Task: inverse folding
């Protein structure tokens, strides 16, 4: 069995499924739901006719350019997972149908359903790939058959479980914004820096509202925090690559000296409750944006998209100066100032020395 799994490149491990597959799923979300949301926002805000008009009508539903991209989130996630699991072509292409089925049957918790169903279907497809003389029939049949069956069997309960957990977190944050602001901000922020996907976690849980705002605060604190405290070692290239790229670049240095993580993490513990209690910062855009922070400014675009949606729905009258001030303070100014102050204390304590943050 071990030889068979090795030959088929089936690696049952936390890294392969919890890091590689989860991270790839987030990329699939970026290339579908997230980019579709951004396209729709640009079209609406800048009054671009081509981006706001209906370009296709499918089963009675009107789709814009962005709407078409968003509608492909299930296939995009599953195909990305298949790519991360190193699926052969016939398996990889079959993942399109698998992703569509899992996402559709998973409902609001579709991303979590796609993760589980796509992993199992991909590995089963890899197991039978090129084992028969009619591979072109057997491999897609096994992959799609398993995917659709599993989607029917487990996608609805998985979707409901994810939705329940996400709703619980959001409800708790509304009820206890201070403590939950700290908890959500710190945990999601740390997930962003770790080699797992905070964006995929937020998407799977459907994390929006005040909890989404706390998540944006935590992720921003990690990225901006590491960018500014390591400026002396990494200069402008490091500032940009970490500030609007990813704080995951520091993971190697964290393994060598975990104390370099103190400043950004404590900063997130402070900005989280400020976001939820003082500024009432809500992230009502696509849930995936909650786990992005300042990466490509996606977190901030998500907050802005939520404002626009709220205005359209009549629950918000206008975007105010305090709204913008809160977003700038939580996303950039406070993380930078707090991280620098805390890091100086860490350095004075002798826990971190020059060069520990060098990329």
Result:
């Amino acid at each position: 069995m071990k030889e068979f799994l090795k030959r088929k490149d089936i690696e049952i491990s936390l890294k392969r499924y919890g890091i590689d597959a989860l991270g790839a799923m987030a990329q699939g979300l970026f290339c579908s739901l997230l980019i579709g949301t951004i396209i729709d926002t640009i079209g609406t805000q800048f009054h671009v006719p081509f981006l706001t008009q209906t370009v296709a009508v499918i089963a009675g539903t009107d789709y814009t350019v962005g709407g078409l991209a968003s509608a492909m989130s299930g296939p995009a996630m599953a195909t990305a997972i298949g790519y991360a699991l190193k699926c052969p072509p016939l398996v990889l292409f079959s993942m399109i149908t698998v992703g569509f089925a899992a996402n559709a049957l998973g409902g609001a918790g579709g991303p979590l359903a796609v993760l589980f169903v796509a992993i199992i279907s991909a590995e089963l497809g890899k197991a039978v790939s090129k084992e028969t003389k009619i591979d072109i029939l057997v491999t897609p049949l096994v992959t799609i058959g398993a995917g659709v069956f599993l989607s029917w069997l487990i996608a609805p309960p998985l979707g409901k479980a994810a939705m329940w957990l996400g709703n619980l977190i959001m409800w708790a944050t509304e009820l206890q914004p201070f403590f939950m602001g700290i908890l959500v901000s710190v945990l999601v922020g740390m997930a962003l820096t770790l080699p797992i996907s905070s964006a995929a976690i937020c998407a799977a849980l459907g994390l929006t509202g005040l909890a989404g705002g706390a998540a944006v605060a935590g992720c921003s604190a990690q990225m901006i925090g590491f960018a500014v405290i390591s400026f002396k070692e990494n200069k402008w290239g490091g500032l940009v690559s970490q500030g609007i790229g990813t704080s995951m670049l520091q993971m190697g240095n964290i393994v060598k000296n975990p104390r370099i993580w103190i400043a950004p993490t404590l900063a997130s513990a402070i900005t989280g409750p400020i976001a939820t209690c003082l500024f009432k910062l809500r992230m009502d855009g696509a849930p995936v944006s909650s786990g992005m922070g300042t990466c490509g400014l996606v977190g901030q675009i998500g907050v802005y998209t939520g404002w626009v949606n709220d205005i359209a729905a009549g629950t918000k009258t206008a975007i105010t100066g305090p709204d913008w001030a809160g977003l700038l303070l939580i996303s950039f100014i406070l993380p930078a100032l707090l991280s620098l102050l805390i890091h100086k204390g860490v350095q004075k304590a002798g826990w971190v020395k020059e060069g520990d943050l060098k990329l």
